[in-house]
Amino acid sequence: MKTRDRILAASLELFNTRGERHVTTNHIANHLGMSPGNLYYHFRNKPMIVAELFQRFEQRLDAFFTLPEAPLTLDHKADLLEQLLQIIWQFRFLQQDLDQLLEADPDFAQRYHAFAQRSLRHARGLYQAFIDAGILLMDARQLEALTLNAWIIINSWARLPGAQPRGQQLTEQFLRRGIYQLLMLEDGYIAPAHRPAIGALHARLQVPLGELLPGLD
Amino acid sequence: MKTRDRILAASLELFNTRGERHVTTNHIANHLGMSPGNLYYHFRNKPMIVAELFQRFEQRLDAFFTLPEAPLTLDHKADLLEQLLQIIWQFRFLQQDLDQLLEADPDFAQRYHAFAQRSLRHARGLYQAFIDAGILLMDARQLEALTLNAWIIINSWARLPGAQPRGQQLTEQFLRRGIYQLLMLEDGYIAPAHRPAIGALHARLQVPLGELLPGLD
């Protein structure tokens, strides 16, 4: 692996496990057994590393939204949800530290704003494709509200405001439940013919709430 | 008004308009034409003011969740949504600065955690009452997912991650759209007999998205 890519991989790992704001470029250099000078040769500062990781996240998500030529099926839906889970898990520091990143870095905030608008348009297109395929039964007003609610759930789940015990590490099981919550946003709109099949998807994604948020039951 | 109440009212106003973290106890004293010493006599520090305001917010929200004896109707729903909008608007700094408050103050975080769990149980009870009244048609799994999604929308809307232009002030119109987004979470579950009447509620709350998030259309 090239030095540049090793730095990015190590940064991503440290950001994800310790939180972006608790990790300095010195931590990253130490973790790689590299001199700070060598790291600075590749990245002048931490925001440049964050920007590069964000670009990779953006590319993954833009690819995620590229629709297949054929009409969508429930198998596509299952694949898409798993893909989304994997992308968010891989770049989970972005969800966990989003507010601080937006606050601290105007360049990042501007770029995230454009990304948010593009993602909302793409997500609307994706839901529209499931409407066209006869899987979802919704009108334009419901589609608009669903798209926006889906964006909020995906972007807020990792920080589940105040409901998670303090200092608890984000787990893949917890994110899986977030994907389930996303899927449940559409549950009132599934065409009757597709209802039985959607049960398998639910079973794959549903993590009991009591395991994640003890005290809610 | 007692000095203590004047301090709380001024703090709430400044927190809401400037953001909690940009307001110091000196700003509050200045705003009231009061000496810092006089303010400290009533509140030793800013977290004590935040704690007192949060307690009032909690009391308002707990009262909000108290159900009427009679079976619920759509008029109740309309009233509840307006009440919720008013409570959130009055204490909007809590929504806007939530992540920072939780991070900076462990006592507040612990209290918010208990509040979150109680609110989720109350919200589930409220949705259950609308199921019992025959207005919503949902099973237990849908009720659980709806409750959690509603909590996330309400708690995250004010910060609408990355989608709002930077530095934009939160407006009541923007919050109104958030209440509409909350109502739309149930739209797939409204009993057919109640569908026509729900249209009036939508009309009252729907703020065109293009006005709030330019560039999404």
From TrEMBL, chains A, B:
Regions crossing the membrane: none
Annotated organism of origin: Pseudomonas saudimassiliensis
UniProt-listed SUPFAM superfamilies: Homeodomain-like (SSF46689)
Database matches in InterPro entries: Homeodomain-like_sf, HTH-type_Tx_Regulator, HTH_TetR, TetR
MF terms in GO: DNA binding
Pfam families: TetR, TetR_N
Name of the protein in question: TetR family transcriptional regulator
DNA-binding region, residue range(s): 24-43
Superkingdom field: Bacteria
Keywords: DNA-binding
Ranges of residues in domain HTH tetR-type: 1-61
